[in-house]
Queue: 2 jobs
Job 1
Amino acid sequence: MRKQSLNVPHGRLIFPLFMPDATFGVVRSVGSEDLRRCGVQAVVMNVFHLMQHPGSSVIQALGGLHSFSGWDGPIVTDSGGFQAYSVVRRNPKLGSVTKKGIVFRPEGSSRKFLLTPEKSVRLQLSYGSDLVICLDECTHVSDPVQVQEESVARTIGWAKRCKTEFERIVKKSHRSKELRPLLFAVIQGGGSLELRRECAERLLEMGFDGFGYGGYPLDSKGNLLADLIEFTRELVPAEFPMIALGVGEPTNVVRCAEMGYELFDSSLPTRDARQGRLYVFNGDPFRRSVRLDSDLYSYLYIQDKKHIKSREPVSSHCDCVTCSRYSRAFLHHLFQMKDALYSRLATIHNLRFMTLLMERLKEDSNDE
Ligand SMILES: [Zn+2]
């Protein structure tokens, strides 16, 4: 049976669930009260970035991410593996992946960081994470098979070390069952079905609360790797929730939700908002006439001159504060003036679009 929700120490995750990326502890331009008003239930924060800014000792001294950031809802933390991998892949001089972990020196920094499976788990728990993700070794779907094999072997070995460390710390802290965070492992294997299967089977044997689809979810042309993502979901029994890491384009989210993924995280909707690309449903999202396919929504480019005198809201089918109170003309003006209020109002709107989309998906699955 597919789970409808999961309880975590700081609340409940109700599926399907889109989580914006609060990479440095903040969803850029908006505060936690804005997130609440948009219907956001949980955010994803990133160990790789937070260990650099403001640094782990600062977060720990301030009592963890919840009290530091003012967000009292669930926080999912990312292991940092994907970002460390991106640094090393872009420029091998900046680091390497070894049996021990990932050593890297972020661009522009003189400091070297070592991210081991144990350290990643320790940091995530010390930050107060509700859902901890195991360190994995990411690859590109087009990497040769030998690279994929090594990545799967390492991802399995690291998941085991993460689980041991997680259990050691949780046991030592004498937490009640309700205050125990969840631990998810990531399934790698690139484009190889056999390796995906092997990775999933080995991780399932070890036992985790849920799993993630690992690797960049799009091909080099920007298309969703739908067959591979669906195949990976089918490797995992339905009662284990799965997160489609990095999936955030609305129609891709719909497709992955239909495959059985429960959780999504991406910085795309908020980044698009800041850059002037706003999402607008092609009709009332709660009417069946709005189909959940490529006709679902359109982009509204706020910098477009046609909005200069428009009294219309961004979307007449949206109940966010931006659409309730401000016109396209005003947003266009704020964008031209590079006023910080533009980013806040635009981010609020795109986030509300995503939470409305989740509500529609829930309705559809209740009707089935
Ligand atoms: Zn709106």
Note: The pocket of zinc ion is lined by residues 314-315, 318, 320, 322-323, 349, 352 (CB under 6 Å).
Job 2
Amino acid sequence: MKVLIVYYSMYGHVHRMAEAVAEGAKEIKGTLVEMKRVPETLPETVLAQMGALEAQKAFSSIPVCTVEELATADAVIFGTPTRFGNMCGQMRQFLDATGQLWAKGALVGKVGSVFASSATQHGGQESTILSFHITLLHHGFVVVGLPYAFQGQMRIDEITGGSPYGASTIAGGQGERMPSENELAAARFQGKHVASIAAKLFP
Ligand SMILES: Cc1cc2nc3c(=O)[nH]c(=O)nc-3n(C[C@H](O)[C@H](O)[C@H](O)COP(=O)(O)O)c2cc1C
């Protein structure tokens, strides 16, 4: 049973969450877990202006995903930073290249799930995840979130991401905040939860 984690990260927050999702998925015996990045669409000059080049070096060794690879997985867990309350353009472009897979119904019945990162606490993590689900539903994914069985999303003693829709992190206006222990625990829970459901569907 194969779980593919497909993400975009500009400054490393989604990447760190993706690592935690992978750790969680690996807890389910017999699960092959692969982490892949979606292709970059911005020119290097723009990335340099955005201060992203240095940060992206840290995870440049993660292979870039092709759309065909989606069809090889039993579950796909997508990670994206929030852009104006939606997924980032890099992820949108990647998904918009999946028309052939849609035409063949190649992703029907696979497990799909989404996690996110935004700069601010109420900057659109939930809308990012929920609007992402629309694309997954068009493809026929069985959509899985982050149930309240992950009790960490009940916390009010500290600022935290994470909702029933999926794990998330708050990066801060300057990207100065990396995922907290609670947010990483949410990501691990989501990875394990998706893998356990996929293991039942694809024994
Ligand atoms: C064009 C653009 C739009 C953004 N829109 C939002 C937004 O709507 N809400 C928000 O909280 N953060 C927004 N952000 C901040 C990103 O979500 C933040 O940089 C990201 O979550 C950090 O994750 P990463 O390091 O993995 O890229 C935006 C950033 C950019 C560059």
Note: Strands lie at 2-7, 32-37, 75-81, 111-118, 142-143, 168-170.
